[in-house]
Queue: 4 jobs
Job 1
Amino acid sequence: MRRFQKTSILLLSLALTLVTSGIHNVAYAAEVQELRIKVGSKNAEINGSAQTIIQPYQTHGVTMVPLSIFKKAFGADIKLGDGNTVKILKGKHSISLTLGSPVIWVDGRKIRSEAAPAMLNNTFMAPLRIIASSIGASVSTGEGGQIVVRLKTEEGAEPADNEGIDTDTGKTRIGNSYYGWSMQYPSGLIPGNSSDESVATFSDSEGTYYLEIYARPKMSETADMDTLLDTLLTSASNSGETVLDQQTFEQARNPYARIITMDDDDSIWQERAYYGGGRIYTLYLASRTAKSYKDMQQYDALLDTFEPRFDSSDKSVKDLSTVTDGMVETYNEDFGLSLQIPVEWDADNSDRVFRGRNGESLSIHVASAPAGLTLDSWAGQLRDQHKRTFLPDAYKWGTAVQVEASGDKALLQQAEYTYGNGWYQEKQLMLINGGYRYLIDYTAPKELGSGTDRFQNIVDSLDIDFEGNSEFFGKLEDRRFLLDTTRTVKKSSNRYHYTVNIPLYWTAVNERYDQSQAEYQFPGGSFELEASSTRDLDLAVWQLKNYFNEAAKITRDFSLQGIENVTLAGVPATVFRIHQTVKGVPQSKQVILFSDSDDQVYQITTTLNDTNSTPEQKAALETAVKSFAWMK
């Protein structure tokens, strides 16, 4: 877990150099702050002062301007967020833009721009009118085609505290109290805005460097210097970087390992690893100006201030943590969803899936609501789904009660289920609003016991932009709500010249048909199809036969139930039928081997837990296997 979208983040952070400079041009004491620009002209007038800017341009009827002018003219605070996201803070207003996306969030409301933010000559260009109006400014046309933007302020008043770098009076250090670290907070260090508290990002106002700090999960054992160095070297190797220098500093006030690397973009990084409080902390600093590893010494003074601890009594430390009672807010901007989850959970906001380390998980599904659908009828459909995928003794339905969530009535349905190795609790929260239905599905091992309180905290924090979704989306489908297990879709491989019909209710793990492999999961089972041009069919059959026979002799709860010679897709195939127990879960497995006329070997592997061996599930597997056919 490190440097996801590193290149785009680095580029964006350096592109924001103009955004974070020029603060002296802000006329805080003026009653009216004013900006005058003209499309196609690099000349601008900011609060009466002539300035040179990147030329504004128009696209799709939208005037695009450098994002920097909102700070220069109106004192807005600009922060780098996750990925290619930038946040603009002005008084009580918050605007979130993403490079290349027409979706703009204004004070929690979703707005769609006719033109998406874009990069021009390493400058972040943004739609003028939407941002100006969002911070309370007026836009009008002046003489000679000038565009005039005015923002009224109280006489002598300064902008509201946006918690940016320029408003942190008295703060000389910065850190995170929950993850237990701190470092110097020099003038010009600009914090990013990450939804993952274990990651902190920074850039400097001169655009010369970019810094990431990662707090890794707590460990049961201490990490020595060899472990710290290996952590960095492994990360660099996985990222395809060239190591230019590596050292350990055991005598430092806070001992650390350090490497200096060059990435594929020829950017030079100084990377450090510290240990403290049961965690490994990794720091990654990229320089815009460094030409060799020796140039990275200029950042030692800053990095040497890092401490793997946080002093809550020190009022000079700015705390980045937003953790409250072990919960932290997360959000999905596409669907206007925000909620609080346990801070230790892993969050995949794009797919709306959240997972804890003790077996807990929560997923959010959104789809159009069919006409006439009610919460009660929908609950009945979900129960019917489980009847098709779980045997009766493996699923127990509990109560269904009316509750409130996100300011609307909802239905909470509870159940328990097992795969054969213990029972799980499931809570399904259902809402229908504005033509869409929302399912919040929570599961956890039954023995946790505290799941009810934790889930209730999540529900209490849930906020959904029902109105915005109704305006923004058309018809949506989610296969989680599919009622017919017999519906399939045809998949094909142009490289290996075959087709196969896959049930729509299955979930794709990967679909690399032209790269030899495809894999799917469904409740209590899996389907995998693999092609190989290097295997020999007779040898593969012989090896599997020996392996399974030997496993049956020495492995408890493993039996080879049979080997059959059948015909599949018009060619001979060998089927191995197995019953086994994996991690306490009894399941049936079949492995099918066959080849085509070019001697390419194909292997189909299916698994199905005993508790999920319903007629519908077995029929879906059989349909997929028998549908395999050669392309004509």
Job 2
Amino acid sequence: MRIAVGAVGDGGVLRPVAEDGTPTGPAEPVTDLVSAIARREAAWSRPGGAPGDARGDAAARAGGTRGDAAARTGGVRWVWSSTADLYPRLLSAGVRVARCHDLELTETLLLGHAGRLGEPRSVAAALARLHGRPVPDDPVVAHDLPTLFDEGPSDDIEAVVAVHAEQQRRIAETGLRMLAAAESAGALVAAEMGHDGLPWRPDVHDALLTELMGPRPAPGLRPRGLQQLADRIGEALGRRINPDSPSQIVKAFAQEGVRIPSTRSHVLRQVEHPAARLLLEYKELARLYVAHGWSWLDTWVRDGRFRPEYVVGGVVSGRWATNGGGALQIPKVLRRAVVADPGWSLVVADAAQLEPRVLAALADDEAFAAAAGESDLYSALAGVFGGARDKAKIALLSAMYGGTSGEAPQLLAVMRRRFPAAYDYVEAAARAGESGRVVRSRLGRTCPPPSQEWRDLAVQDGGGSAVRSRGRFTRNFVVQASAADWALVLLAALRRRLTALGSGDVAPRLVFFQHDEVIVHAPRELTEAVTAAIRESATEARRLVFGDTPVRFPMEAVAVECYADAK
């Protein structure tokens, strides 16, 4: 069954609704929203509700008979405005829910499908669109900056019910049911990972920084190692400069008779001057110091856990982003600080060659799909490209990203002859983009339509750089967004299986996700079961997203005590 949630401060209103959004019972005010949700979740998580529990019986009556499908297949699906706003309150009270319908995330998907991505997505905005009224802007939310007068989210129950019913109608019309469910499940995973946190050893992190650049500096000063590098750069250039200033560096090199267009790393690597190597070393250390130095450690690691705020669908392709913390870009050198608790392990798994496999499944190219049934796709394709695995990789990446340099044209010609369906799939996506049309992922996530500025440029350019750039974008979108579809379904399936393996303080938890990689923190005795759960979830995601395909999506999993040992 579904229960709509209207949150008002610590309390709120609950109302049961049918799958199509039609109310099936009266609205019920509650003074303690968290406790009310906890009771109903517990009652409906057991087949048939909770015998003898008046609230459980009431919920069962509101949703139908106690033996109905909802009770048998996972209980309540909570309908609320924003998981990111409400669910952390539940998690802080020790309450976890199995399923939800996130109205804001779903509105984003539906707006995107209609070519209106970027319009306000709040319940208030969706209700205004429904009734033809002026649409308000989305409120600016800072989840990490509570104020003295912060009373939590506030949503009118009738607005929630009306918006949900309209979304269910549009979902049925657009075929976005699986994507909307997966996106909402992803929001639960994201909030839980932020709550549980990735195990992180501050002492190891500090030791690594100290080894690389010296002890923690006083405020306003560079670490000793960075300052020494800065001094050596100045000596090599014959003058004191600020290595953080591109203009000073370009000028100093010019005075040495070396002309450089910028201080980007790929430019400096081509420069034969002693200062260039030192600058590259300085840039690498400075980047680590600024992005993941001691200030980062103070800000983001608490009680031995790194707790970022994940943004579900933060990238238009469906990939996640983060609000600060750089969770999706943990430097390899700092993976030594990611250490499991005593008696626990980190089960690290990633999907090998995910995007090429996704292309094989999307295109339904028999020869390509057969190769994607092997554990190493590039090796399986090497024979087609003269026995060279690296050439197979270049060909596939060029096809997906629109590469045209070096050997790419010749290798793409081979791909066109041997795997015409796969080649034509991405070519069709590119042509659609170049003509100003939108393309969609396997589950229906839609790319943004071109802006008016692009359309004006396309007319002026006559098929020039702006047109080609959009073609490259849509060519990759269909693959990357479909890979994000698969990853979302994987997360939902894995979360369900991990819940079945344990609960409370000994439950295995998803603690990290990045595009095609997951980390589960699990009691050591459960690592084999977790590894099996990951592989089963990958298989389930393949079946649900791509149907009956010979393409394999192998998840290589390893149990380690330290993240660095997994690679």
Job 3
Amino acid sequence: MTTLEAPVGIVGAGPVGLVAALRLAGLGVPSVVVDAKPSLVKQGSKACLIQGDVLEVLDKAGCADPVDAEGVTWRTARTYVANEQIRSVTHPKPLGYGPFVNISQYRIEQVLAERAAADPLVDLRWDHRVEDVTQDAAGVTLTTRTGAAEQILRVRHLVACDGVRSTLRELLGVEWTGYTHKDRFLITDIRAKLPLAKERHFHYNPSFNPGRQLVMHPQPDDIWRIDWQLPPDADIDAERADGRFDARVRAVIGDIPYEVDWVSTYRFHQRVVARLRVGRVLFAGDAAHALPPYGSRGMNSGIQDADNLAWKLAQIERGLAGEELLESYHTERYAAARENLRITEATIRFMVPPHPLRRWARAVLLRLSKVLPAAERRVNSGRMAEPFVYRDSPLIPGAAGDPLLGHFAPDAPLAGDGGPDRLRRLFGHSFVGLLVAPDAAGAARLAAAARSRPWAVAADLVAVLPAGAPAEGLPDGVRAVHTGPEGLPAGYAGDTPGWWLVRPDGHLAARSTRGDDFAAALATAAGSPAEDGTEDGTAEGPEGDGRAAAAPLKGAQA
């Protein structure tokens, strides 16, 4: 018998693995994170953009503000054809973060690793290379090597976040569907004071990369990331040796002084595992799906994988759901991966036409895009990442016909009465029932009806009242918040008082104008049997630290 070291093991201390560990810790679940590297390694910008909604996930772990403060926030994306701008799209400014924040993956990892090292529920182990993995009905046994020593780690569930070249995927024989593109791309991070707006600049057929694409992204500290599509015969090592690389950069930026911070070439992938759940092993991030950089869907979707999975593992650890809940992780996040692949495939087919007729058609379209709005609208420069909508989830049965269910909950300002300043900061540590009513009496009626039947799992009830409405008369355990003068976003509030159920990952799971159906909706959303619940649970952890209370481990031996 091998002693259980932690409920959850995580392989890979990149952004996805670290977010998984921190989200589990926030829900009261300990984890062990192992990584083959001896420490964090700087590798240029790599993933260079975090989307605002994904920063909300980091905010649940207390890591969003430093990333947001250091990064370059931008709203406008510009598209050029033959050096002439054909389009400028300005995204709305969210209430919280973003919409897009440019910062290196390495810096995000630094912030997350520092937080993880300080959390007693996260055991972060560097220099542990995975050599073998086995699993049985009770758990997973991971064999790692650190130096000359072999170590055995026993956990109930294992999260594979070990990247696009995943060792765990290979050891478990998981099918890696899709393809790797034959064209090569060059990433160069340069430090230079360029006279460009700190926005996204995407070029088709520019004079400095004729017949191909180039995209520029600003980074902190005067770093600019430049991505070139390379011709087949390009040899970057030779270019750096004989001076042609400097000429390549100079063609883009002119005579402005610059320093090279990082150079790398890559071929992008369009791949997803056939199954994100393989027994008690769950694949996330690049180990589960690999995407081109256009639209910045890789790291962003991986962090959303971690957020989706963490609360489900916590439910199982508390004994509130069975293993079958993890099937919803595959269902929801596989659908998200397929949607991302569909979007990026359309971009790839436009950027790199697969045969001569398509190349000719694209060339004509690009020429026409300068004069015809209809042609300009068809120029595909990469649709930016956004949270997936769980329309077909078994945990959200009403999503298919509802304009908001399954969505990442829209944000709204809250009045400054000592609590959260916006709606999304109510979410993350438990299920939340939003009781939307014009007054406290209406919210109290909804709360009483919601509590009229036993709950399968704990949830926080929050009365969302109009600005200035008195909160007296609410039942014990129901928190009151007040909206700002503009009220809630369209769709939240109707003519009749009603409730919304929000999952720990911030997605809207159910809604109703009744109250006695709350318990059944909560059981469905949590993947828990309704009859096994307790009435009016709460989600506060010890000493009011916002952590969900963790159930005792299910046994020290496995």
Job 4
Amino acid sequence: MPTADIVLTGAKVRTLDPDRPHATAVAVRDGLITAVGDDRDAREWRGPDTRALDLGGATLTPGWTDAHSHPVWGLELATGTDLSAVGDLAGLTAALRGAERTDGWILAHGLDHNAFEGRAPHHALIEEATGGAPAHIRLYDGHSALVSARALELAGIDGPRSFDQRASVVCDSEGRPTGHLIEHAAMELVAPVLPRTPDTERATRLTGLLTAMAATGLTTAHVMDLGGDALRLLTAVESAGELPLRLRLSPWCMPGAGPGELAELVALQRERGRDWYVGGVKFFMDGTVEGGTAWLDHPDCHGQGTDAFWPDLRAYSAAVRVLHGAGVPTATHAIGDAAVRHVLDTVAALPTGDGSPRHRIEHIETVPDDQIGRFAPLGVVASMQPPHAAYTRADHSDEWSLRLGGERAGRAWRCRDLRDAGAVLALGSDWPIAPYDARQVLATARAPRGAVTGPGLTGAMALEGITSHAALAAGEEHLTGRIAAGFRADLTALALDPVTAPVDELPDAPVLLTMVSGRVTTLTL
């Protein structure tokens, strides 16, 4: 065989290839894995120009994938002061008083709903701290924001609005906006007056973000959005260099989309760069529990949660059917039990056959027993984010649990139940909603936090969730997700074995190598 570009030796290789589960050496040429074997085999793979890397006993696995992330849109979401550490109103006031201003605005993000201490979000809670300045605070869920009175004035928001999707400008009993904007259409009302980050700064921030993500072991991210000028930004970044991660981007299909919009979504599937491409379409079947917009079988404690994001459920199902017929896979955001059920019902009604696209459900925060067993027979991928549970509490005193009540809160993030029922389970972070560090995703999948009461995943299941099962979720199981000849050379090396290492050691385990299509993106040997 031709000599390799790179030969990796001295590794504990977890190939996830059933034909050869373990090895110690891997050869790479032209972006592909060309050989897998033992160190003694490596001598035959080397030539005068081969780069040899001794991993010194590290564990080498298929490259890690964040199966749900927002690195491009997240640049906007994560702008300004980080409020993720704020736990109460006093802390919020202190943080806003010390916040920097951008063009006169106070911009902040990551605020936990629990910081309101049970009170309804209202601009009156922040006016003293902001001193009358326009302020825009994104809540951690990414589906709601709190803005100041001045921001409402600048945006021309003076009363309730109607939207095609389930969204709302929350108003008091006299019809005056409280500053609480729920769901994307409502939040977009403020977008035209917000300060804009220059394109050059955005490109620099994106490259820095992806480099930092790679340093945690990631080689790929499934990007669950494609808004604004994302394609232009990615093209500009690639014209100046290489992306540290491969990105698979899924544009949104929103309520009201007609034949023209669906045709455009199909056409977008042809768009690609060197290390990014458009793959699939993202839908929303509901919003969030804390925002009162998760679609539930029964109302939450405030009487909310009884409506789907798509007012016309038949229109959602029809849109999925059109895309399915065009060979386009879909990913639907569904947090509540009613939302999950409707997506499964929609997929169950689709025609099946060779070459049919694989559909997936994102989040699945609460789901009853009678739906767990439906995923595997229908071939629906469960895409879940274990770090989200950190916003809940074991005693169910958090906003998420209080809204749902004890029974539904007791069905939180049932990753293990879905795996045990045979479902494909892809794991992700949903950055910037939760930290992107892939090691934390592994750790929280194995040792669930907050309201999760069931057992965690085994070490092997967790690793599969960011490798082989993530590949299945993208329909790329023939290209990536295992270490075998002919597969893409997407690789991650960790100082510890992610399958057997103690959970508390995983978040700080050194990442020694990441490789994307044979290109080394992180190296700390």
